[in-house]
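Today's session is about reading a structure prediction critically. Students often jump straight to the picture, but the first step is always the sequence itself: look for stretches that repeat, for charged clusters, for runs of hydrophobic residues. Only then move on to the predicted structure, which in these notes is written as discrete structure tokens rather than atom positions. Here is the chain we will use throughout the hour.
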Amino acid sequence: TPLEIKQKQFEKKTFGGIDKDEVQAFLNSLSLAWEKMLEEHATLKTRLEFAEQEVSKLREVETSLYKTLKAAEETGKKTL
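Below is the predicted structure for this chain, in token form.
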């Protein structure tokens, strides 16, 4: 999580530095998580675009059905 990243502390070495292997392992895990998040983002973006296209098509069908219903009502009124 972002909080875990901010709070991450590395082991101190004997001369005051930090453990290079521990830092590298942390960066690798962070990189994998970031890659997974980017893939998920791309998938969700694609799904959203598809859903928006479907909504647009359904709105066109709805408009067409509404116009057809109104025309049928007008025709029904004229025949009575």
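Discussion point for the tutorial: The chain has a mean pLDDT of 90.
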